[in-house]
Every structure is written in structure tokens, then in C-alpha cells.
Amino acid sequence: MDVGTLLIINLVISIAIILFLIMVLKINPSIAMIIACLYMGIASKLGVMGTITQISDGFGSMMSSMGLPIGFGVILGQLLSDSGGASVIAETLVRKFPAKKALYAIAFTGFVLSIPVYFDVTFVILIPIGFAITRQINKPMAYTTGALTIGATTAHCIVPPTPNPLAAPDIFGFDLGIMLIFGLIFGIITVTVSVFLYTKIHDRHFWNEEKDVNHSSNVVKELEEQGKVIKENRPSFFISLLPIVVPIICILCGTVGTAIFGEENQPIISQFLGNKLTALLLGALASYLLGYKYIGKKNIENSAGEALKAAGVVLLITGAGGSFGAVIKATDIGTILVDKLGLDTSSAIVVLFLAFFIGFIFRVAQGSGTVAGLTSMTIMATLAPTVGIHPVYIAMACLAGGNSVGHVNDSGFWVATNLSGLTVTGGLKTYTLGSFISAICIFILAIIGALVFPVF
């Protein structure tokens, strides 16, 4: 057996190890990925110490670039939520839309909130408003749950500073501002198109009120009451937006500076502000200002502590993804994979389909969109230099695949299903369908972009 075939077999086995450890033995994804790294490196003749060195270097490289920005981003989202700013943004945006566009209102509100806040928190904040919208439009809860899922999962999938889109530029080697610009453009188009398609599907008597609604659940009544609670001493809408807007403006300053002056000659101020560490630090400080005024110093400390608990898991998974990528890169399997599979890397569509497929398989198999997106991106990063398109399109395809089919092994599925008072089949017809439609839209936009503007 030649070396190339052996490397491909080792990669397949490594992926199988990750899936087996996560799905069957319920081992933490970060540990599963490191074990797979050990197998891949040793079996591919990198040597025991060489493999460990690659694992350590990959983890360290990823953390030096991503560790603090992810931590700051999680703190930003937690404080924005706890200070009441997220609720103010949600209520204001929903009111600004005309009544007949209520589903688009909840979808885009979910999109905005999920830029700094994780999906689960976004859903908890918005679902009481969702019940009011459901009564307003006189349609089943499926419409609101699906629209909210589309908006929230789309932003979480492709708009920094959530972990995967924040990691994509480092993995593929391009500017974070490019990811932000494409994420916002693709995201707005995706939410608009996906809500339209999702609504049309449900208009065709797709929903069964008897089988798809959990009639024994009291959660709907409890959350409706929660939504009626009037919260005083909350920030204004524009002040609430500051933690979101500040890092976005900073990142775009860096991108614009690079475009005008070049990478080496741009002013120091745009380099400083455009760095993701600076941008997210300033965003976190803006969220602290909210917290000081609206929840007090003691509650700020508790809120930040809760945020860091959540950040720990994300950081480990992200770092382990860096280790996996370093080992894969050291084996030079990207070039070998292209040769053995006979892939035409001059065909953007072929490469993008492969990127989507890898993310799709991981998402369906083990549930975590973070693991699916990171793993597919680390594998495809070895192929990206051989393809004649900008790597942002490959990153989008990977992330779309990693967001494609969320079902019973995905925690987000249960959050959406239970808080909406639905059965498992109801969850599949809302959360799963909504996230799948949005993933396909992102993937199609990546293909269109790669064909029309391959490089820029």
C-alpha cells in the first residue's frame, strides 16, 4: 500500500475515532479530537514526539490567536443579556417591523442578537416575544419557532465573533473583516430567503397540530407570563447596541485601512482597532459599562464568571481543532487527497461541495455545529491553497455544512423544541427544517460568489 492511500485511510480512521468517542462513549469533543490527533500523527509516521509537538504547537497557535477574543466575546454576550440590553434590542426591533412582516421581525432580531449571544440564550430571550407574534399572525407556533431558528442559527454560523466564523480567517489565512462583511451580506440574504421558503413549506399543510405540539407541556404558559413582566431600569436601544456595534466598526476599520493603504503601510490606529483582540476587548468594555449601571458591580462579577464557565468548553474545542489542523497539515494530506480522489481543484464547485459534505457528515453524526465547522475547516485548509477562489467561500461552505441538520443529538434542537412546547416531530419540522434551509442558502451563495467573484 502506497503512502498516499495509507494517509487517507488514517484520516478516515481519525474521523471515525472522533465520532465514536463523542457519540458512543460520550467523551468531551476536545479530548476526542486530541486522541484522534495522536492516532493520525503516529500512524502517519510523524513519530510520537513529533505528533505531540504538532498537537501542542497547533493548540498554542490557535489559542494565541483565538483564546482572548473568544473569552471577551462570551463575556460581551453574557453581560449584554444580563443587563437587559439584549431584551431591549429584541423588543425594539420587533416593534419596528410592520405587523404583516412579524416573522421577518423575529428572524432578524434573532440574527442581530446571535452575533454576540449564543443561540440558546437568544432563543430564551426571544421566545416569549415569539408567543405574542404567534397570536398576532394567527398561525401555529411552528412559523415563529422556525423563523427564530433561521435568524439565530445563521448569525451563529457565519458572523463573527461567534467561535467558528471568528476562527475561519485564522485557519484559512485571510482578513477577519472579509469574514464579517461576507457573513453580514450572506446572512441578511439567507434570513430573508429562508424565512420566505420556510413559510411557503408550512403553508402547504405541513404542520400537524395534534402530533407536533406537546399538549402536556406547561412551558408555553410559563414563558408567556414571563414575557408580560415589565422590567424597569433597562438601557436604551442605542446604548444596548454599543457592545455589538463597537467591535464591528473596529474590525471594519482594519479592513478598510488594509484596502486603502496596504497591509504594511496602513496607519497604526487602523491596525490597532482592526485587530480582533482590540475590537472584542472594546466590545466587552462597552458591555461592562452597561452592566455597571444596570445590574451593579456584584452582579457584573457573577455574570462574567458564568460567561467564563461557558467559554472554557468552547476554548478547549477550538484549541483541539487547532491541534487537529496542525497534525493534518504536517502530513501534507491535502495534496495527496486531491491526487488520490482525482479532484479537479480548478473547479470551485467540486471543492465547495467537498467542504459542505465534510461539515454535513460531522453535523449529522455528532450534533455539535462547533465541532463540525472546525473539523471541516481544518481539513479543507490543506486544500485551499490549491484552489483558485478566495478561501472565504470554502469557509462558508464548511460552516454551512456544519450548520445543516440539527436534530436529536444537538442541544439547540432540544432548547427550541422544549421552549416552544413541541414534540420531537415538531422540532424536526421547525428547528431542523429551518437550520437546513438556511445552510443550503449559505452554501448556494458561496457557490455563486465563487463563480462570479472568485478572487478580489
- What structural class results from the helix and strand content? mainly alpha
Number of helices: 21
Report how far the terminal alpha carbons are from each other: 42 Å
Q: Bin the strand percentage.
A: under 5%
Summarize the structure.
The protein is mainly α and 456 residues long.
Overview of the molecule:
Keywords: Membrane, Transmembrane, Transmembrane helix. This is 5-keto-D-gluconate transporter. The chain crosses the membrane at residues 6-25, 32-52, 58-81, 102-133, 176-198, 237-261, 273-295, 307-328, 348-365, 377-402, 431-453. It comes from Robinsoniella peoriensis. One of its GO terms (molecular function) is gluconate transmembrane transporter activity. The protein has 456 residues and is mainly alpha-helical. It has one domain (3-452). The chain has 21 helices and no strands. Helix 4 runs parallel beside helix 6 (119-137), helix 8 (163-172) crosses helix 9 (176-203) and helix 17 (348-366) packs antiparallel against helix 18 (369-380). The longest helix has 36 residues, at 296-331. It is globular. The relative contact order is 0.15. The model has no long low-confidence stretch (mean pLDDT 86).
